[in-house]
Amino acid sequence: MSEKPKKELTKSQILSKKITDEYLDEAFRAKEEGRIVCYTTAISPVEILVAHDIIPIYPENHSVANLAAKKGAQMCSYVEGMGYSSHLCAYARCDLAYRATGFTVTRGIPEPDMFLACNAQCFTLTKWFQVLSRRGGGLPLFVFDTPQYIRDGKAREEIIKYCVLQLKELIALIETVTKRKFDYDRLREVIKYSREASLLYRKFLDMAAHIPSPISIFDALIGMAITVYRRGTPQCVEYYRTLCEETQEKVDKGIGVLPKEKEKFRLYWENLPIWFKFSDHAKLLGSYGGVILTSLYVHAWSFEFDLDKDPLYTLSENYVSRFSNVTLEDRVDMALDLFKRYSLNGMLMFMNRSCKAVSFAVPTLKEILTKKTGIPALVFESDMGDQRFYSEAQIRTRIEAYFETLERLGLARKAA
Amino acid sequence: MWEKMSYEEILECAVDPYPSIREWKKRTGKRVLGTTFADVPEEVIWAFDILPTTIMGTTKPLKKAQALLPDNACSLARSNLELVLSYETDLFDGFVLPQVCDTTQHLSDIWRLNVKGKYFESYLAPRQTDRESAKYWVRKEIERLIDSLSAFTGKRIDESDLKRSVDLHNENKRLLKEIYDFKRNNPSSLSNRVFFSLVKLSQQVAKDELNETIRRVKESLKDGTKDGYIDVILAGITCEPMEIYDLFDEIKLNVVADNLLIGSRYLAGEVDPGEDLLDRLAARHFKRGFFSPIHGNVFGEFEELRRLYRENGAKAIIYIHIEFCESQEYDLPDLKKMMKREGIPMHVVETEYQTTSLSHLRTRLQAFFESIKGT
Ligand code: SF4
Ligand code: SF4
Description:
The complex is a heterodimer of chains A (416) and B (375).
Chain A: H1 11-29, E1 37-40, H2 46-51, E2 55-57, H3 59-68, H4 72-80, H5 90-101, E3 114-118, H6 124-135, E4 141-144, H7 153-178, H8 184-206, H9 217-230, H10 234-253, E5 265-270, H11 278-287, E6 290-294, H12 296-299, H13 311-320, H14 328-341, E7 346-352, H15 356-359, H16 362-373, E8 377-382, H17 392-408
Chain B: H1 7-15, H2 18-28, E1 31-35, H3 42-47, E2 50-54, H4 65-68, H5 75-87, E3 94-98, H6 107-114, E4 119-123, H7 132-153, H8 159-185, H9 192-202, H10 207-220, E5 230-236, H11 243-250, E6 253-258, H12 264-267, H13 277-287, H14 298-311, E7 316-322, H15 326-342, E8 346-351, H16 358-374
Parallel strand pairs in B: 1-2, 1-3, 3-4, 5-6, 5-7, 7-8
Helix pairs in contact in B: 1-9, 7-13, 8-9, 8-10, 14-15
Residues 74, 76-77, 100-101, 103-104, 237, 293, 322, 325-327 of chain B line the site of one iron/sulfur cluster.
């Protein structure tokens, strides 16, 4: 039997692998080198840790690897036997299963010395980290509390002040843990790298505005990984520069995920992805001329740090204003901006059982978005990682029916 | 109205206080603001001559909430939303809403966008509590709430308005604590159901009137007995439906201490006397067990429950779990383990506002207490 020829890796893919390997090697060496490993949330002011030479580890990312490898149901049911219920976040369940069994499809992640949870994302991570902290006998857990960024200028100023105060407390804590003085100049440098990488990352995401789009959300999700765990480093900047160049080349050549004449449905996706259906979904949608271009989730890492501002201030401003921590009215505005800029003509609204923080707003969000855009939405419920809550047949039928509706309403893009 | 309630009226009102609140509103011409559990300083709202009412779910059927909150949201959140969308649409003049967990993260937005034309304010209590910044923040939030209520009512309050309100609320808590002390030793004279109904009502109706009833209840208490009763500690957030207390009464369980929000965590919220009331209100936030389960320090909860269990010579702990409350669910497996290791019997009661089966609960509770007697 002849083997399928291996697709040659692109420059950015080679770079991504190199950065990831180096990062994990460094993380696993941390203990020998007397460095601190801090578990943190995907959205958290990690620049402070990076500036202080602390290794940030993201248990969420590790869970993604296991969920994408379709190990969700197996790992989740294991922790149910430990007393954790089936409707908790699949990232947390998967991680707790890893702690209990050591099972993972990757090389695993090093054990933590401390935790930093930022609740701009959700409260689950705080609760999950509390479990891990107890498991470690009471390891330090710093909660960076980001009150909802409500629409009130004066309140926002106060919220930022409160956040800045907390970042100072975080710095005091890591100074105590490491017995080293914090270096603010180094922090400025790290934020500079973060800013540069974020702008490039955003530029990459925004290339989805081209018709045909050179990237789909699946490319965005793969491309997102490096900024999630390596922002604040020059390697991260280099990666996004390369990725932007490669994607620009596709734009210049008119190469789309789907050929221009076949790109009928340019779709918005609400929520996190269904990790174990990643490529299947891309193929399925593609067969109908559909391509998901973007979501607020992938944009959560396009920060806009302002180097002229106090570093703690600009960090606070950015982290407190993520889509998951603003009011629904602001979230609607953020989504509408994407609809406009990317010429979207459809929306898939995923109610993710795992992620209550993001999902519970979806029905209300859908009502407003459909009213404001005139585009109907497909709402469906499943789980981002636990296959037991996924029904293939049902989702296929509904997607098919949805595209028919869009066609009928004359919303499909006409072939050029 | 609330000042002369019989036991029966107390029980009835605690299940559905809203008709009487409507009547009060009509009679006094004053406003009512709804809040949900979360350390909202009720004294501040009352100082504006507004009735603060903690909305605590309903056991009535869900109609509209299902379309807005999926079935893996806790029934407290779902039934609270139902209550304002279907059952008490016109009662509240507005809401002061918190965010304490993933379920409530966007709940204030969902309420605001689906309940039109009312006053809405978020109360952003800190979700970290062991650092100086939290103290700073609580005070700032109280000040912001005062400014917001001033803008809503067109009225300013001074220290004396606030003091009057604080005194009234403190008195309420003192009276309830005195009754709790009595009940602990005389369970045959005062049922769990009546006592916890009074605590619940205290968070919902006007205390200047209710305190009269509580006083009368207190004065009417006659020494009873503890014979045949089993002393237990009640743990959790809230214990609903209220008929669960009837079950406790029926099988002669005497709740001698608790860490419920509709219980000791509320009663511990007396504001200390001294200068600068705002500072003291802020200090109170850190004095009592936090309303928000995000702080779930299981080591702390375990130690607290163990202390209550030992000091009161209780026979068991009953933990009330609200189904789908993820905050409790991250804590429970470890809490159970710690209790087991310590040899403290703990029974977890699963509750749901719409579907709790009392007969099933009774069987399980009876079996649990039979097994304890056997040990
Ligand atoms: S998926 Fe949702 S609940 Fe889970 S960690 Fe991420 S934001 Fe939190
Ligand atoms: S803390 Fe638990 S009971 Fe309270 S609203 Fe959140 S999920 Fe529901």
